[in-house]
């Protein structure tokens, strides 16, 4: 994957989704041949030349400044996650990020995951590799303990582990959330060959992944609710929270909590087996 070409494609996709009427732009007499804004309209809103926008969208290798990126983000009405993605693609680190990758789970974080019992919890890196987990999470994920260490990756489990094919009631949304995170992680770490190879593997082996990856969504949900279909315990509804350790912001601590009494009882029975 090429960050220059992805930057071009991302700008085009975000320009084409905008409604000129909602932005209060004057109506043109001639019909629009393409959806969304014209390049000259984006250029006017961002305060840059039309030729500059054209060259950016053609992937000509321009390196826009942080000021130009901020202006484009405003013109294209980018959400915070999309703005971060744009900056990462252009090689401008976001404020508060270092770009360093932790080698693994710090012992204190691994102990924290264990101490969160009886709440199912696990620690993931930017690739969604599972670095640490507690017994409750191991029981909750079907067949997890039999998975080879090299395949203990949350996205691989969701996509390619047969025992988890029907685990998420809304598999489409689970994939969207995971793909949005992986896309943002790739933009932040384009030199991470292991991550690039992982994405390529998913795209070639799963049609749903390839389809959703092409949509270029980068908005990540750090909180929400999931309905899980466990082969032994049945339906379990959980609320999830994703926390970022201040010392290791590239890591993600995922914690599940039962959303109702029935789900809490099901989790208790599952973990007591």
Topology:
Blueprint (H helix, E strand, L loop, with lengths): L2 H14 L22 H8 L3 H8 L8 H10 L4 H10 L17 H9 L5 E4 L5 E4 L1 H6 L13 H7 L10 H18 L4 H13 L1 H7 L9 E8 L3 E10 L8 E7 L2 H12 L1
Antiparallel strand pairs: 1-2, 1-5, 3-4, 4-5
Helix pairs in contact: 2-3, 2-4, 4-5, 5-9, 8-9, 9-11, 10-11
Which features does this protein show?
273 residues, alpha+beta, 434 Repressor (Amino-terminal Domain), Beta-Lactamase, 5-stranded antiparallel sheet, Lambda_DNA-bd_dom_sf, MLTR_LBD, Cro/C1-type_HTH, Helix-turn-helix transcriptional regulator
Please outline what is shown here.
It is built from 12 helices and 5 strands.
Structural write-up:
The chain is α+β, with helices and mostly antiparallel strands and 273 residues long. It folds into two domains: 3-89, 434 Repressor (Amino-terminal Domain) (Orthogonal Bundle), CATH 1.10.260; 107-272, Beta-Lactamase (2-Layer Sandwich). It contains twelve helices and five strands. It has helices at 3-16, 39-46, 50-57, 66-75, 80-89, 107-115, 135-140, 154-160, 171-188, 193-205, 207-213, 261-272, and strands at residues 121-124, 130-133, 223-230, 234-243, 252-258. The protein has a five-stranded antiparallel sheet with strand order 2-1-5-4-3. Strand 4 (234-243) and strand 5 (252-258) form a beta hairpin. The longest helix has 18 residues, at 171-188. It is elongated and about 65 Å long. This is Helix-turn-helix transcriptional regulator. It comes from Streptomyces polychromogenes.
């Amino acid at each position: 994957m090429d960050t220059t070409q992805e930057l071009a494609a991302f700008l085009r996709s975000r320009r084409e989704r905008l409604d000129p009427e909602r932005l209060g732009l004057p109506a043109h007499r001639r019909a629009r041949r393409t959806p969304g804004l014209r390049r000259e309209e984006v250029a006017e809103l961002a305060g840059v030349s039309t030729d500059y926008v054209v060259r950016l969208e053609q992937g000509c290798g321009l390196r826009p400044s942080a000021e130009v990126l901020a202006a484009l983000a405003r013109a294209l009405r980018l959400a915070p996650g999309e703005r971060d993605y744009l900056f990462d693609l252009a090689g401008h680190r976001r404020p508060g990020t270092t770009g360093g990758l932790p080698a693994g789970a710090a012992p204190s974080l691994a102990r924290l995951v264990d101490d969160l019992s009886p709440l199912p919890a696990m620690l993931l890196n930017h690739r969604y590799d599972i670095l640490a987990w507690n017994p409750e999470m191991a029981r909750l994920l079907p067949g997890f303990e039999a998975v080879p260490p090299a395949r203990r990756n949350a996205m691989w489990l969701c996509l390619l582990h047969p025992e988890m094919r029907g685990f998420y009631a809304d598999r489409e949304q689970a994939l969207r959330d995971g793909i949005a995170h992986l896309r943002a992680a790739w933009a932040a770490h384009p030199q991470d060959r292991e991550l690039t190879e992982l994405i390529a593997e998913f795209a070639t082996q799963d049609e749903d992944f390839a389809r959703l990856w092409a949509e270029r969504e980068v908005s990540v949900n750090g909180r929400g609710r999931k309905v899980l279909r466990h082969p032994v315990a049945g339906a379990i509804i959980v609320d999830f929270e994703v926390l970022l350790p201040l010392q290791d912001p590239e890591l993600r601590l995922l914690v599940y909590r039962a959303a109702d009494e029935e789900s809490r009882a099901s989790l208790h029975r599952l973990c007591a087996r």
